[in-house]
Write a structure and sequence with these properties.
alpha/beta; Rossmann fold; 2 domains; 24% strand; binds adenosine-5'-triphosphate; binds magnesium ion
Length: 250
């Protein structure tokens, strides 16, 4: 077992009366790529926001034990940028908030996400996929141990999905740690060291792909997830219906 870089104990989140995340333990070991899966509304982004400290957990605590900087790279599921600025200006602005010792070169990051050629173009004229790549770029601006990406491949074309996966492999080869969410099974299978499945605010599975395939006797991740959901959605045991006594209920 590796060093626990991120360790959450008993974290839960409630919005008013709505329990969105049930008390859960969650960890990310240094050097691994963990993919958080689950349907819309399962609680993935909520868990991510609690882990990053953007939102306060209703219960439990989160520890981030990085070797060097306490910061991390974070790509939220949605990001809006000032439309009048270009990507160079925006990234330089974001970079100014990062500790000088871990600042990366903006040009290098822009090249990594394929926006260098468009660096002078106002982002108001960017496509959805280009905005998403700029969102990815701002997460890569700091040279840190942990990168967290919420739905990073959302809106990316197949080429950029492939490039993103290569980027994750490269980060890992440099000893970095990656936590991301995804709905896309192909992404999960290609890059996950460990898969955590959230369903209705509960962690339903937490294992390597091989482990999941063995437990659920299938080498198809979609089928594995369906089996896990089916267990959960199984109807309650049948009850005997009492015989009608011929009288209407009040
Ligand atoms: N600020 C909030 N106030 C109230 N409820 C919220 C809030 N944010 C999220 N929720 C609810 O929490 C639940 C989990 O939402 P969350 O965004 O974490 O899901 P998700 O797994 O990331 O879904 P998706 O795949 O659509 O991104 C949903 O039912 C959502 O409506
Ligand atoms: Mg989400």
């Amino acid at each position: 077992m590796g060093r626990k870089l991120l360790n959450a104990k008993d974290v839960s989140k409630r919005y008013g009366k709505k329990q969105v995340l049930n008390p859960s333990d969650f960890y990310v070991d240094a050097g691994e790529c963990v993919v958080l899966c689950g349907g819309n509304g399962a609680g993935k982004s909520t868990l991510i926001r609690v882990l990053t400290g953007i939102e306060k957990a209703s219960t439990g605590k989160v520890e981030y034990q990085a070797d060097q900087s306490k910061s991390y790279g974070f790509m939220p599921d949605h990001m809006e940028f000032p439309e009048e600025l270009n990507s160079l200006e925006i990234l330089n602005y974001y970079r100014s908030f990062i500790d000088k010792r871990i600042q990366r070169n903006v040009g290098e990051v822009l090249r990594e996400v394929g926006l260098w050629e468009k660096r002078d173009q106002k982002v108001g004229a960017f496509s959805k996929g280009m905005i998403q790549r700029l969102n990815l770029a701002q997460a890569l601006l700091a040279d840190v141990e942990l990168y967290i990406f919420d739905e990073p491949t959302n809106g990316l074309d197949p080429f950029w999905v492939m490039e993103f996966k290569n980027m994750v492999r490269l980060l890992k080869s440099k000893g970095k740690t990656v936590l991301l969410t995804s709905h896309i099974m192909r992404d999960v299978v290609d890059i996950a060291d460990r898969v955590v499945l959230l369903f209705d605010g509960r962690i339903k599975a937490d294992d390597t792909l091989t482990g999941l395939y063995q437990t659920y006797q299938s080498n198809n991740l979609e089928e594995v997830f369906l089996k896990i959901m089916d267990n959960d959605l199984a109807p309650p045991p049948a009850r005997e219906i009492p015989e009608w006594n011929g009288q209407m209920a009040d």
